[in-house]
Structures are given as structure tokens and as C-alpha cells.
Amino acid sequence: MLEIRGLTKNYRKFTALKGINLNVEKGEIFGFIGPNGAGKTTTIKIMCGLLSPTNGEVYINGINALKNIRRAKEYIGYMPDFFGVYDNLKVTEYLEFYSSIYGIKGDESKKLINDLLELVNLEEKADFFVDSLSRGMKQKLCLARCLVNNPELLVLDEPASGMDPRARADLKRILCTLRDMGKTVIISSHILTELSEICTSIGIINKGEMVISGNVEDVTNKVYNNQILEIEVTDSPDKAETVLKEMDFVQEINPLGNKLEVSINGDNEQIKTLLKILIIKDVPVITLNKKTQNLEDIFLEVTKEA
Ligand SMILES: Nc1ncnc2c1ncn2[C@@H]1O[C@H](COP(=O)(O)OP(=O)(O)OP(=O)(O)O)[C@@H](O)[C@H]1O
């Protein structure tokens, strides 16, 4: 759905992007993560045709977005990090205005607006002035506005900023619905924990460079060569510990009652071997879980100064 190749951007002498490469497949929710000033907004503005790059290529659904901006824009719904809403309009009037831009009028527009307000949970505010909405509500309205033309690719720049926990939970739900509708979503944030449960893939940008990208599990594995497993036994945790210690890929064991947190150096092959050995040695295992690393940890690890 989105392919970026060798994207660079100079602001006079300052190089904000240093050759970014990125691939986001259709249907993914891609978390674009980086600290302040890393280059997220610059990348997003270029991919949405709002800023020219110094070098590089951007393809949206196979269309060269730098050469055919108009065609590429048909696929994009863009939610900026700062946006203006027209204060003297009511919520429905605001959405009517945007749907009219796309030639959607009358009953079709009414139905669309009802559906969008339901999606973002603002039905009760339909007749309120935009001005009277809270910041989080304005952001949800802005998200609804981005969906007016039914875009395949949604690019959301810091949509969660300024939202309270309830609004964030709402945003998560909306994003999951959009994913189920087959949309591709790119969402930037430095609030990492907000993204960890919904993103299917992530890219971490730091000082204009894409430090790492891929599906969440792959990125986790690349950052941490070891994985953490949680193994539960019905009894004899000591025996489990003794057996685990004999495996050369087991690095650390942390017993917690009938549960053991085990750090291993390896992938699914080692996990299969580990389980097989535990069962052969009659260790009464009842559960084995891979503990997912928190995105926050990954982010701190990847962006830490050398
Ligand atoms: N118009 C501009 N002129 C000069 N420098 C700019 C301009 N816009 C951005 N920059 C610089 O480029 C770098 C990347 O900025 P950008 O806004 O893309 O970062 P970001 O990752 O979106 O940051 P934040 O999370 O704070 O929004 C920063 O160092 C910023 O100061």
C-alpha cells in the first residue's frame, strides 16, 4: 500500500530525513514511532503530498505519489498533528461541508455522516457547535472528516495527543474497526504504549533515520536477541528449573512460585525444543507463554545514545 525509498529532506543546511525506506502492506496498522524532532511529521507530509522531498520516491498503491499527487491523494485520508476546525459550524454542518467537497450530498451525505458519527462515538454531539467540543472530541471529529471520502490509507499524525484514557481507548476501538474494514493505517506517536496492542507493524525513526521496522514480533526479536517465556507447572518448579538449566540456549531463570520466567537466546525452534525436553523429562507443564515486550522498552533500547 505504501512504499518509501531513499527519502531525504533538507531544511536548508539541516538534514531532517536521511534516506528513509519503508514498506507498509495493505491492511496493516503501522506504528510510526520516534522521539520529538525525529522526522515523523516531515515523512508524513511528504507521503501525503504536502511537502516536497529533497530526494527519494513514494508509492501509494503503486502510484508514484510525487509525480501523480492528485491520483495518490484519492487513496489517502490525512489527519494532521495540528488542525483547524471551523468553530462557527455545528458538527453535522462541518461534516456536510467536507462531504460536499467530494460531491456527496442529500440522503447519501446524511447516511454517511450518521455512520461516521456512530463510528467515532459522537452521535450525541451532532447538533453541537464544533467550538463546544473538547480537544479529544475535536480530534475524533477530525478523524471522521478524514473518512468522508472512504480512503484506503489513513495517515494519522499523533492522533492520541491530548486525549484522555477513555478517548484513547475509543481511538483504539475505532482503529480496530478500520482494520476490520480492510483499511491500512499509519499512525505516528511517541506515546508508545498506546500503539503496542493495536499495531501489526512498527517503524522506529530517530534523528531522520529509520532505525528498525517490521512486524512487532520481528522487531522485538531483532532488538532483543533473547525472548522471555512464562512457564507454569502444576508442581515441582525446582525440577523444571534443573531441567531448564541444562539447555544451552536458556540464559536466565526467574522462579515465581509455580511459574518460571525464562529468558532464552533463540526463536520458535528453541521454544519447541524446550517444550519437548520438559515433557520428555516429565515436568508437569500446564502453560507456556511468550511474554510480549512492551514497545516502550524497544523504543528506549533502539533510540538510546551509543
Ligand atoms: N520548516 C522547517 N524548517 C526547518 N526545520 C524544520 C522544519 N520542519 C521541521 N524541521 C526540523 O526537522 C526535524 C524533524 O521535524 P518533524 O516535525 O518531522 O519531527 P517529528 O518527529 O514529527 O517531531 P514531533 O514528535 O515533535 O512532532 C526537527 O529537527 C525540526 O526542527
From TrEMBL:
One of its GO terms (molecular function) is ATP hydrolysis activity. PROSITE patterns: ABC_TRANSPORTER_2 (PS50893). CDD domains: ABC_DR_subfamily_A (cd03230). Pfam families: ABC_tran, DrrA1-3_C. Residues 2-232 form the ABC transporter domain. The keyword Transport applies. Keywords: ATP-binding, Nucleotide-binding, Transport. PANTHER family: ABC TRANSPORTER, ABC TRANSPORTER, ATP-BINDING PROTEIN. Belongs to the ABC transporter superfamily. This is ABC transporter. It comes from Vallitalea longa.
